[in-house]
Design goal:
The chain is of the alpha/beta class. It is 36% helix and 13% strand. It contains eleven helices and ten strands. It has helices spanning 2-6, 21-24, 61-70, 121-133, 156-172, 185-188, 201-209, 224-230, 248-258, 262-273, 280-297, and strands at residues 11-14, 31-34, 55-58, 79-81, 101-106, 138-142, 178-179, 194-197, 215-218, 238-240. The strands form two sheets. A six-stranded parallel beta sheet has the order 7-6-5-8-9-10, sandwiched between helices. It has a four-stranded parallel beta sheet with strand order 1-2-3-4. Helix 4 runs parallel beside helix 5 (156-172). It is elongated. The two termini are 13 Å apart.
């Protein structure tokens, strides 16, 4: 509290829901803003803890509907649409594009509990990579979640190791596939022509930046009704689940070459991010921050202060 007062701080931004946030939230003068860590359809993106903050920044209409559906007695006017300013950064290129069709497979990690487990690795990962390797006109960019490298979860660690073996064997035979376990995925998007991923922020970030590129998403629970409800983006994608994985080669060939979902993805981008284009989110974020500070300053005329 002394730190905030001594430095005349006016607004605090929280990037997660750590327990220590609630010590900070005790200070009544500052504006307390939660921004989460991105935009995703994962269950962890909506928390009842949102009620504790003055404002919650969200990417667009989909996030508003998500909070409305998942929270009880929540004041929707706490939500401020600021898009995805994290995606406005012009990252230095980490991956040179090839003359082939560059397909990124980017599975998420297994989460901290089963409800937040959306990874495809242990279910479909090996089958996906095997099918990609069969097409010599495709270059694979394998970019798992950074926490996969240290995973001890049965099935996940084994699938990851098997995929590394397959790709390395193909490269020894003359292929030029890429393995990037710890690279910056956002800096690699510009060099890819299509993405295969899971329910996570990765697919939506790709949708924001490259809605014209093919997008394939997995469903480890193989429940299409629930998947459409909880992750609307899949309505504009091919989906790999326990049924479709049996013919995953045909699915990927259709998704990556014919790409019949392109128009739907353009519409879905609007649902998740509204009219904000790359570069607009940063300005919206800054404008909203300034507005909140000015509004709060106007409320402090008779505020007695923390120490008084």
């Amino acid at each position: 509290m002394d730190l905030y007062d001594d430095n005349d701080l006016k607004l605090v931004i929280y990037t997660n829901n750590s327990r220590t946030n609630f010590q900070s939230l005790d200070h009544p003068r500052l504006v307390h803003v939660h921004v989460n860590h991105g935009e995703s359809d994962k269950l962890s993106m909506v928390s009842n803890k949102a009620k504790a903050y003055d404002k919650v920044f969200v990417a667009g209409p989909a996030a508003i509907k998500r909070h409305e559906a998942m929270l009880i007695d929540f004041e929707l006017n706490k939500l401020e649409v600021t898009g995805r300013p994290q995606l406005d950064i012009n990252f230095e290129l980490e991956l040179e594009p090839s003359e082939k069709f560059d397909v990124m497979y980017a599975p998420t990690w297994e989460g901290e509990n089963e409800d937040n487990n959306y990874t495809s690795l242990d279910k479909y990962g090996v089958a996906i990579v095997e099918s990609l390797l069969e097409n010599p006109s495709w270059r694979i960019v394998y970019k798992p979640h950074p926490r996969i490298q240290e995973s001890n979860t049965p099935g996940v660690a084994q699938a990851h190791a098997r995929i590394l073996e397959m790709i390395e064997a193909a490269n020894e035979a003359g292929a030029e596939h890429v393995i990037s376990e710890q690279g910056n995925i956002l800096a690699m998007f510009e060099s890819t022509d299509a993405l295969i991923t899971d329910v996570s922020s990765v697919g939506l970030d790709y949708l924001y930046l490259h809605p014209g590129n093919p997008l394939v998403i997995s469903d480890r629970r193989s429940n299409r009704e629930i998947l459409h409800r909880d992750a609307p983006v899949v309505q504009a994608c091919h989906v790999v689940d326990q049924d479709s994985v049996k013919n995953v080669g045909d699915l990927l060939a259709d998704a990556l070459t014919r790409d019949g979902h392109k128009d739907q993805r353009i519409e879905m981008r609007q649902f998740y991010f509204g009219d904000l284009n790359r570069g607009d989110s940063t300005k919206r974020f800054q404008d909203v921050i300034q507005k909140l500070i000015l509004e709060r300053q106007g409320m402090l005329e008779n505020f007695r202060g923390w120490h008084s």
